[in-house]
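Next comes a concrete protein, fold included:
___
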Amino acid sequence: MPTGPKLRAEPQAEPFRIVLVDPEIPGNTGAAARTAAATKSALHLVGKLGFRIDEQSVRRAGLDYWHLVDLHRHDALHDFQIAHPGSRLHLFSSGATRSYLDVAFQPGDWLVFGSETRGLAPELRERFAPQQQLRLPMRAGQRSLNLSNAVA
């Protein structure tokens, strides 16, 4: 067991921004929120949520770090895009052909993930250039990663 002080990183001036579109499972969003809080990344929840995020629900779930999350809520991706024009979006999808390893990410980039069961809707992905759509390389036969693992 390490005996020295914990390694701490200086907060980035322009951290990544995490966008979850139609998240369904509260535990996954909670884990993504914990990642966002730890990295000082804003968390944007877009569309229909499969759970409640009111104060009572969050407290009941034991999310004692929720107050550290820079949380933003948008009814639809269109509303999100109007609020953040010119944002450098990277859409993560198991249907993409480009690996995230081939991207020169920049401070302040937006990382967009779809729901756990459906991913990002095909009609949504059609609105974006193929080079904006990324996948996480995995072994053959693996369908996808858990949403919170993909975000992390």
About this structure: The CA atoms of residues 53 and 71 lie 10 Å apart. The mean pLDDT is 86. Helices lie at 26-39, 55-60, 77-83, 122-125, 147-151. The first strand starts at residue 17 and ends at 21.
